[in-house]
Amino acid sequence: MDISKNTLPVLKIENLKKSFGDNHVLNGFSLELYKGENLVIMGKSGSGKSVMVKCLMGLMQHDSGTIEIMGNKISQLSQNELNSLRTQVGFLFQGSALYDSMTVRENLEFPLRTHPERLQQKEVLVEEALENVGLKHTVDLMPDELSGGMKRRVALARAIILKPKIIIYDEPTTGLDPITSKEIIQLMSDIQQKYGTSSLIITHDIDCARVIANRIILLIDGINYVEGDFVQLSKSIDKKIQAFFK
Ligand SMILES: Nc1ncnc2c1ncn2[C@@H]1O[C@H](COP(=O)(O)OP(=O)(O)OP(=O)(O)O)[C@@H](O)[C@H]1O
After folding, report:
1. How would you label 51-76 residue by residue, b for 16+ Cβ within 10 Å and e otherwise?
2. Nearest CA to ligand 1 atom 6
3. What's the pLDDT tens digit per position in 56-72?
4. Chain segment 21-42, per-residue pLDDT in tens
5. Atom of ligand 1 nearest to the CA of 48
6. Is residue 1 included in any domain, yes or no?
7. How many distinct structural domains can be found in the chain?
8. Is residue 5 part of a domain?
9. Is the whole model's pTM more than 0.80, yes or no?
10. Is position 14 within any domain?
11. Does the first or last residue of the chain, that is N or C, have fewer Cβ atoms within 10 Å of its Cβ?
């Protein structure tokens, strides 16, 4: 995949700040994600990764800084405009987050409910999304009939059903065994190749970062402490950076 930094970033966060009282979580965090890129964000537990993602998705109000998705500053958008922009962003939640009382088909159809123009194609979209993750045969099953790895695949199918330009993965391999993790990472790569998506991947999983990252940003002390590729960062002599690569 050709990653061109000469084009505008599909996602840009600039000087993002967010505090809860005296707890200054984000102190000027910035990133740029380019078309076709896999950008991994790593940070210790409690470093503010989820807060950053919530601000990015418009689910939490940030104190200052700017967030631009495909050139649109999200703070300047109406709710309708924001909803429409959200269709360009797929989200794989931590731990899959399927609706247990819904079949696989109903889980996949869920993101379509706010897009009446897509509802006519729902059969085709569900089938295509499940085919991409190798699970067409599960369409009428309930989530509790699936293994953990299958649930994660279905969640991935749901994240891509609207063919988003950007996918945000929140801990995509957490709770999976090493072999299933590898399969999920391979699927993430396949989807990126097929649709030319750009991915922002929040992970603790060093193997995931090694395999998939074009670039890694370490979120430390509320800022983008350092960025580089896996090899560059893993050779760093900075103790704060080394701690991630032990
Ligand atoms: N709604 C909230 N109200 C108050 N404090 C919050 C809120 N959400 C998050 N925080 C605080 O912000 C900090 C960062 O939390 P966050 O969940 O973003 O960490 P994280 O990096 O995602 O951690 P983990 O890897 O464990 O998921 C924590 O100190 C947390 O207590």
Report:
1. bbbebbbbeeebeebebbbbeeebee
2. 20
3. 888 899 999 999 999 99
4. 999 999 999 999 999 999 999 9
5. 18
6. no
7. 1
8. no
9. yes
10. no
11. C
